Amino acid sequence: MIETEIQPRDQDTRLQVVDVLRGFALMGLFLVHMIESYELYWVSPKPGLIADTVFLLLMGKSFSLLALCFGFSFFILMDRAAKRGTDFSARFAWRLLILEAIGFLHSLIYRGDIIQTLAAMGLLLLLAHRVRSNRMLIGAAIFCFAGPSLIVQMIAAASGADWANGAAMSSSDPGMPIYLSGTWLQALEVNLWAGQVPKYWFFIEYGRLVQILGLFLLGMVLGRIGFFGRLREFRRQRAIALAIALVVAVALHFGREPLRLAFATLGYGPAAERAFWTLTGSWLDLAGTASWALLLMALYESRLRWLVQPFAPAGRLTLTFYIAQSAIFVPVFYGFGLGLWDDWSQATRLFVALAAIAFQMWFAAAWLTRFQYGPIEWVWRALTYWSSDVPFRRRVSGMGAPAQA
Q: Is the pTM of this model over 0.85?
């Protein structure tokens, strides 16, 4: 019966630490978007202390953290269904198709949408779920993290392959002139397809698709072993992993440029050097992602939980906030709106972003005192089960706080 599948779940079944990770990742991604004026910063980059710091700490890390949480959420859905004696595979595939549609609508506002990519790649989890060996899945994740597609590009470029030595396909961007000075209808038209093409080429050329798959697999395995649910049990392992991740991140940050210069002396050409630089950057992002995740978990388990606890409500409204952020601030920066992409200083963008983050965190906490889900989360869940019986308003007794997955 559909009613038994969508009934409210007890709050104890929800792993709040994952909400903290998801909320932090969302706000980190939003901060990056604001500093880069929703991509328009790259028309004429102006490095500065604020931009450099935000990009170093959060760019590539926030997105990766969301992908990790996505893999974990998949495990939770499949595991709960299995405990009820049902197979959630078909419904999960349908759930991803709905998410793909939501992402498509969002991409008409902001072509940098990541929902579509996560939804499409999520279908691979249905295949991975059939692999029962965690060691095999971890091995596959490590293979993905090694950057195989970038290594292939690097070797091909060094070998003189024409396809690897040409200009990056993602560098051709017909959408940017429209975003700078076009009308809303022109932006909508280019976002239907032409403006999306460079994004997907970027994901392919920079190894992001393979990295996403690795993060999905890792998130699923962490769910299987109870990594997020048994915090005390994994405390020692987390402390060791955090120390290693921080050392690797610092070493890569300061060592990337010397490594690039050393690689350049080999004479393989600019395309191979670009692939090598991107490869080391992807490793830095992964080390940074691990550092953030483990640090947030350590804080959550300590007396300093109050520092990270406010991210949890926002983590339950991720989809609603992610789309609302674009709907509000893309018109602020783009030419069809206020066109402030080059008028606001980095300090102004930072201040506005931090104020918006504070508001979102307050709003999420207030919203969840009355409602079970964010509005878009509710629509997604209702369409998943093809039923409007999904509870939206919170019961007066306060019982039942179903999770957003």
A: yes
**Phi-psi region for residue 98, left (φ > 0), alpha (ψ -120 to 50) or beta?**
alpha
| Structure-token pair, residue 301 | 């388990």
pLDDT level of residue 15 (50, 70, 90 thresholds) = confident
Distance CA 154, CA 277 (A): 10
Residue 105: count of CB within 10 angstroms of its CB: 12
DSSP assignments along 370-384, one per residue: TBSS-HHHHHHHHHH
- How far is 72 from 87, CA to CA, in rounded Å? 17
Inter-CA distances, 324 with 11, 33, 70, 368, Å: 26, 13, 20, 17
Q: 14 — alpha (psi -120 to 50), left (phi > 0) or beta?
A: beta
pLDDT over threshold 80, residue 237: yes
Cα 93 → chain centroid: 20
Q: Output the six-digit token pair for 343.
A: 């008028």
Mean of the per-residue pLDDT values of the chain: 94
Q: What are phi and psi of 393, to 5 degrees?
A: -75, 145
| Cα–Cα distance measured from residue 126 to residue 122, given in angstroms and rounded to the nearest whole number | 8
- The separation between CA 177 and the C-alpha centre of its own chain, rounded to angstroms, equals 27
At position 37, the amino acid (one-letter code) is: S
